[in-house]
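Quarterly update from the structural biology core.
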Amino acid sequence: MKQLIGVTGGIASGKSNVCNVIRSLGYKVIDLDEITHNLYKKGNSIYNAILDTFGLDYLDNNLEIDRLKLGKYIFQNEKAKEKLNSITHPLILAKMKEEIDNLNERIIFLDIPLLFEAKLEYLCDKIICVYLEESLQVKRLMERDHIDYDYAMLKIHSQMDLNIKKDKADYVIHSKGSLDETEALVKTIINEIEGE
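Predicted structure, tokenized:
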């Protein structure tokens, strides 16, 4: 029987590092962002649905979805965000389930940034939250995305508070330390999961 382990966190909280460690240990990680990115490409299901719903205003010069422009609009418009989610979530979920079904591993990790926001807890046997204090999260996000403080805070606060996610999770990885420290925490958690 497959065990599905959700990995979640906040934007710029160190979740990608944790998932890279999990992969380096030989486990399969299904990346929901990667699935989403592919479905946004020209001719795929989300691409077509966005054109039908939002029109041509959100295409770039290559006729691909301008995700930065669409993202800025969505962050400031709750109704548009709900509409986009109602279109994209079923398509993304169907693709993720297809990928799970195609794997034979006993333990599969699901990299789902908005796991709690999208109410996908039911998919997971256990959930790992990658946690970081907001002050460090803002700093990392500003450096990573080359954005100002206000936009960084807007992006962070568009997600569920990391303290709430931490309380809802089965395991917490505090990612403020070095990569070696993060790797040690990941190994400890995986050993526990493997022992169940």
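The beta strands are 3-9, 28-31, 107-111, 126-131, 171-174.
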